[in-house]
From TrEMBL:
Keywords: Hydrolase, Membrane, Metalloprotease, Protease, Transmembrane, Transmembrane helix, Zinc
GO MF assignments: metalloendopeptidase activity
UniProt protein name: Membrane-associated Zn-dependent protease
Biological source species: Fervidobacterium pennivorans (strain DSM 9078 / Ven5)
InterPro entries: PDZ (IPR001478), PDZ_6 (IPR041489), PDZ_sf (IPR036034), Pept_M50_Zn (IPR004387), Peptidase_M50 (IPR008915)
Domain PDZ: from-to ranges: 123-177
One Gene Ontology term from the biological process aspect of the record: proteolysis
Cofactor(s) needed by this chain: Zn(2+)
């Protein structure tokens, strides 16, 4: 049933995105006197058709896409005054450009609507690391970051990329309804390692001295999946070193970002909406990082362990929780309760999408401020897309992009969170589509724009057969790219 809902939601979203894009082409074609043969949603045989004075409006049986068919697009048609190639090159340029522009504008307008109605979720500081630049500058847990270097900042990736540059920062934060300006300079951190071991015996703590009698950092550089003995100041650990990941030295200010609070956002088989998770097996739940650590501990088997090492110092050891865990929580009326449940059931509940309220409160700007914030939000997104997408064609940033299967999953997950999240996803996808179509590649609108520009500058007609051949080759290349992204999506799905 959920798969069917996901597919229906995907189709509805896709139809909206396509109609907006094609309507841009249609509107400008009509404005410049170019005849539109068809305005179609989907492909294949028509299931609904309405004939206008000049245009055949139709809904086709396969709703994955759409098109406007303009007079003159077919190479067999003459270049009459009411055909695409019969009008001036600058008009053809605007007709082709209108599709991507309408897509991008639709995304911007959706963000204006979303932020005006629901507001937006700002960045909130979850924890401040002791003795870090952030603590020394006066930043505190639960500070809400409004602006960074005088500009609105909306997502943690954006903020992190700016911090990584290592330059002095000016943050405008909201602390208990008071706006405060904080200046902080990032500092270079030590390298961090994350170790996952199985079949574990022993303890570890303090400085790590060696792995199999080899200095820690030298061993980790060439680690292999094998049984190891890790010696440290406070103990010795033996086990199968199954996986190692690391974060290189980087500039940071010493904060953790907040994502979820410990208040349940909806009912489950154990907890009710409004209940507050207080403690799990003696581990207090006060932050997003606490929740993430508990989920990690619930996921570990009895002989497994997860270790975080900073430089050569053990920063954190996460051990598995018992098969049945004691959970303390308070109901929305303040009554303290304690229960014992299986860790599998608790993990299932805590892993439910949207189970917790967001840690950051919604910011609801009004009037022109809502408009300016929505534009700033859209601008940051558009810039990120413009920088990220080109790398996909040369094998970079693949992890940041989804194909059709991935988009279905994303939309399906958004449906579980509600209308606001669905509209955010639609806005992101339609801006993506608009920017993607602006790339100067054959078969895309961007490729046709280039041909129109060349004709405008040279004042000479381009050979239609040559242009059509280039677009045809480009179409098959894009089709191959689509199949590749579908394969990547399926690989991700089975890899999870």
């Amino acid at each position: 049933m959920s798969v069917l809902v996901n597919i229906i939601a995907f189709i509805l979203v896709f139809i909206f995105i396509v109609v907006v894009h094609e309507f841009g082409h249609y509107l400008f074609a009509v404005a410049f006197g170019v005849k539109v043969h068809e305005f179609a949603i989907g492909f294949g045989p028509a299931i609904y058709r309405k004939k206008g004075k000049k245009t055949d409006f139709r809904i086709n049986v396969f709703p994955l896409g759409g098109y406007v068919r303009l007079k003159g697009e077919d190479p067999q048609e003459q270049e009459d005054p009411d055909s695409l190639y019969g009008v001036a090159a600058w008009k053809r340029f605007l007709i082709v450009l209108a599709g991507p522009v309408f897509s991008i504008l639709a995304g911007y307008l959706l963000f204006v609507l979303i932020i005006s109605i629901w507001g937006y979720t700002p960045i909130i500081i979850d924890k401040v690391i002791p003795s870090s630049p952030a603590e020394q500058a006066g930043l505190q847990a639960n500070d809400i970051v409004l602006k960074l270097n005088g500009k609105y900042v909306f997502d943690t990736m954006d903020m992190t990329s700016i911090i990584r540059k290592g330059k002095p920062l000016t943050l405008e934060v909201l602390r208990k309804d008071t706006r405060i300006t904080v200046k902080v300079t990032p500092a270079l951190t030590q390298k961090e390692y994350f170790l996952y071991l199985k079949d574990v015996k022993g303890n570890i703590g303090g400085k790590v001295e060696s792995v199999n009698n080899i200095p820690f950092e030298r061993y980790i550089e060439k680690y292999t999946k094998e049984y190891v003995t890790i010696k440290s100041e406070l103990g010795e650990l033996k086990g199968l070193l199954d996986n190692v990941s690391n974060i290189p030295e980087r500039y940071a200010i010493g904060i953790y970002y907040g994502q979820f609070s410990n208040v349940f956002a909806k009912d489950s088989e154990i907890f009710s909406k409004g209940d507050t998770l207080v403690e799990v097996e003696g581990i207090k739940v006060e932050s997003t990082t606490d929740l993430m650590d508990i989920v990690t501990a619930l996921s570990l088997n009895s002989d497994e362990i997860y270790i975080r090492i900073k430089g050569e110092e053990v920063e954190q050891v996460i051990r598995p929780l018992p098969a049945n865990v004691k959970v303390r929580y308070s109901s929305k009326n303040g009554t303290q309760k304690e229960i014992t449940i299986s860790k599998e059931k608790l993990l299932s509940v805590l892993s439910t999408p949207g189970i917790f309220e967001m840690k950051a409160p919604k910011m609801k700007p009004r009037g022109l401020e809502a408009f300016s914030i929505a534009i700033a939000r859209s601008n940051r997104l558009a810039l990120y897309i413009w920088k990220t997408l080109p790398g996909v064609f040369v094998g970079r940033n693949i992890q940041d992009v989804s194909g059709p299967v991935g988009v279905v999953q994303v939309i399906g997950q958004a449906v579980q969170f509600g209308l606001e999240t669905v509209l955010i996803v639609v806005a992101v996808i339609t801006i993506n589509l608009g920017i993607f179509n602006l790339f100067p590649l054959p078969a895309l609108d961007g490729g046709r724009i280039i041909f129109a520009l060349v004709e405008m500058i040279s004042r000479k007609k381009i050979n239609r057969k040559v242009e059509n051949l280039i677009h045809t080759i480009g179409f098959f290349l894009l089709l191959g790219f689509l199949f590749f992204m579908t394969f990547v999506d399926i690989s991700r799905f089975f890899g999870e």
